[in-house]
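Now for a concrete sample entry.
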Amino acid sequence: MIHSHGIGKTNGVPNRRPDDEDMTIALERPANTAPASPAPSRNAARIAAEKGVPVLDVVVPVHNEQAALADSVRGLHRHLSEQFPFTFRITIADNASVDATPVIAAGLAAEFAEVRVCRLEQKGRGRALHSVWADSDAPVLAYMDVDLSTDLAALLPLVAPLISGHSDVAIGTRLSRGSRVVRGPKREIISRCYNLILRSTLAARFSDAQCGFKAVRADVAHALLPHVADTGWFFDTELLVLAERAGLRIHEVPVDWVDDPDSRVRVAQTARRDLAGMARMAWRFLRGAGRIDGATYGRAELADQMGRQLVVFGLIGTISTGVSAGLFLALREPLGAVLANVVAVTATVAVNAWANRRFTFGRRGRLGRSSDYLRAGAIYLVGLVVSTFVLSAISPTDHLVELLALLATWSLTTVARFTVLSHTPITSTEVQP
């Protein structure tokens, strides 16, 4: 259960939930429905002005933080009031505190019109963020740790790409060259090892999963939150991985960060739970689940007129042809030309189809996968029949002519594959649990 206080007005305007249609995004569109219009409809400042709500909702999750809460919230409020050019709200997410935190939080909500309090009766940072973000009416959502370890000067660069509609998720990173970080070697080693494991197991490309300084567009959050299972410290890592695998744009901001020596994070316990979370997600992905497809969020498709796609397709085709030619030459004598061709072509067809789908056309997950592979398989069979017919018409003693004929046949098959796969229609969206 969530109890809210101090929600009456934010920056002088009443708060309310947006209409249902404001939250309609690509993942929730019915099949065969065209995507929403591009970025102008996603401008957060305009949406907030129309709805009479704050542009940004900054969530500060707390549990027994009576010592730091008042100074941190006052400092955050002062920074936002003086330095932040958009309307804002600060939400204190009190997850089951048993000290004076609820009383202090209520006092802050009474002191500032832009501060509200949400009380949860169960512990868990992820649970608190999930609950508050799911209920927020602001178009841009953020959170930061109560210790304010991150310099607040990075807040506007963090959320600006989300307000403009350019990016979908934004994170502060302590691991880029432009970051300035003060912390002990133990925490440094653990952080870098964690992110290395994350990249190795889940193929994550973002640099810092654990920095307590993140933001997300509300429409993106509302789509991803139902698929985030963790309620603790792994929550934001899971959300980031799902967002990345959905093809969303993640913006990274180098931050100045000073370690809080009084941090109550139990490193060993948190590390175990994080590793368990990674293992759970890896298992889901291995089973083909956990992917969110079709998340274009109103971003228009970019035309690629004989550009990047053609280059990548050509590289993959060159590698596949080289492997097939090598196999054919190696197996020509023991197996004969026809059987050697069957083995050479078959050996590369599956990897070729996967690589082109993933790298040439940028398609991930299950959406349209069966159709892509069926088309690739049909082209493979046609190419195999044609190449077999060509080999049967060539003298078996002329190996060079055989190879040249096969290369010509494979090239024509490659052109057909590119033409068919590049025009594979994707007319529906789906979410894989």
In short: Residues 7-41, 425-433 have pLDDT under 50 and may be disordered. The longest helix spans residues 308-335. The chain has two domains: 2-286, 308-422. The CA atoms of residues 290 and 433 lie 5 Å apart.
